[in-house]
């Protein structure tokens, strides 16, 4: 990996937890529960919170944009999510929830000059995203910017992570990996245990069929572990993802990116220190 792409991936690692608080913070659950969403498990609110920028999407549109989820699982939650609350209500609730969650996590630091500086730098990068063929990045980039710096930082992190995610899907498509094959091949390189990927709703039969297809392509061995060719393909997917995620960071000079890394580091530590986020996810952070 080149030094430049390494910096792009570093920014993803630092920003991803700041965005992902949305799906785990009790303050956000409180807000969506008030709208009528079931919060005994996170999926009813997850699909509503993440897809609300798209308007009132149907199951096929959400499955396409999210890619890794079984269409059956998506259809359990969408479009029923919009019978509970309209997307504009969900968008307002997620900002209220993040406001409360960030104030819980970071305390008075949300009003500090350093937080405002980090927000301004991240916003400059987020405003540099190219949204062609990137539905989730485009939808989030069209939302109005909030006033408070801590909400600006969260929104910038969200735009940037969805921009990267949209590019990742393009890389997977180029590699000839359908949604379930993408997960099976990722498990094959040890990005996360197979059990972690069951959260995406694929049946054992679908998982096994995808594994057989990848074995036939020479990408997995009979036990489901990646072959050398499989590891090379996954490495190429991640390299291409980094390349496609690089454009926004050109909006910042090297010293500004270094400063943003410096400012985000303590926030990253604080978010991880809450224990809200799972230690192992389907994203493979730390593994790729």
Question: Can you tell me about this structure?
Answer:
This protein has 15 helices and no strands. By secondary structure, it is an all-alpha fold. The chain has a domain at 3-23 and 109-273.
How would you summarize this macromolecular structure in one to three sentences?
The protein has helices at about 5-20, 25-35, 45-50, 60-65, 70-75, 80-85, 85-105, 115-125, 135-140, 150-175, 180-190, 195, 205-215, 230-245, 255-275. It is mainly α and about 290 residues long.
Describe the SSE topology.
Blueprint: H1 3-20, H2 26-35, H3 43-51, H4 59-66, H5 71-77, H6 81-84, H7 87-106, H8 113-126, H9 135-141, H10 149-174, H11 179-188, H12 194-197, H13 204-216, H14 228-244, H15 254-273
Helix pairs in contact: 1-10, 1-15, 2-7, 4-5, 8-10, 8-15, 9-10, 10-14, 11-13
Number of helices: 15
Mean pLDDT: 95
Sheet of most strands: none
What is the rounded distance between the termini? 11 Å
List segments where confidence is low: pLDDT < 50 over at least 5 consecutive residues.
Answer: 284-288
Strand-pairing-aware structural class = mainly alpha
Radius of gyration: 19 Å
Descriptive tags:
65% helix; globular; 15 helices; 288 residues; mainly alpha
